[in-house]
Amino acid sequence: MISLTFLYCGMSLQGSSKPFTWPVTVYYEDTDAGGVVYHSNYLKFFERARTEMLRSIGVSQQVLLEQNIGFVVRHMDIDFIQGARLDDALQVITKIYELKRASLVFCQEIVNPDGKALCKAMVKVACIDNQKMKPKAMPTFILTELTNSDC
Is the whole-model pTM more than 0.90? Predict the structure, then answer.
């Protein structure tokens, strides 16, 4: 069976033009009893990288809150390929695959220092009105920043 991650994101993001990269060091709190990163912590790494990518283009969480906007994960397809261990220095590679008025799809990959993919994800994020908890078109300034970014 071919995963959605493979269909959306291809074999590797490392060859893509200027994806956003965010460094992650594996801490003791990230690991399970076997010393391997616990699976749900990869989601934290992906979330932090998406947040930092948005911040890098001028879209901070504070700005979103002030505008009553939230980005929520609508769908995620994830492939766990190989475990990371305590003190591993990793990179989270993030690329915008698809951008619509009220949603966007990120392709993300966590790689080790040798560039080997440890985990890949396709993440569909919806823009919502925080008070109504309903889909909302992204403000023009956010769409413009996302469209003009290298990510």
Answer: no
Domain residue spans of the chain:
4-139
pLDDT of residue 17: 58
Q: Are strands 89-99 and 20-25 parallel, antiparallel or unpaired?
A: antiparallel
Instruction: Name every residue whose Cβ is closer than 8 Å to that of residue 109 and which is 6 or more positions away in sequence.
Output: 9, 12, 13, 14, 92, 93, 117, 119, 120, 121
Sign of the CA dihedral with 12 first, then 39, 7, and 142 last: negative
Q: What percent of the chain has pLDDT over 90?
A: 80
pLDDT of residue 12: 52
Report the topology of domain 4-139: Thiol Ester Dehydrase; Chain A (3.10.129)
User: Which of the residues are catalytic?
Assistant: 32
For residue 74, give the 3-state DSSP assignment.
Answer: strand
Q: What is the pLDDT of residue 151?
A: 74
Burial of 63 (0-12, 13-18, 19+ CB in 10 A): middle
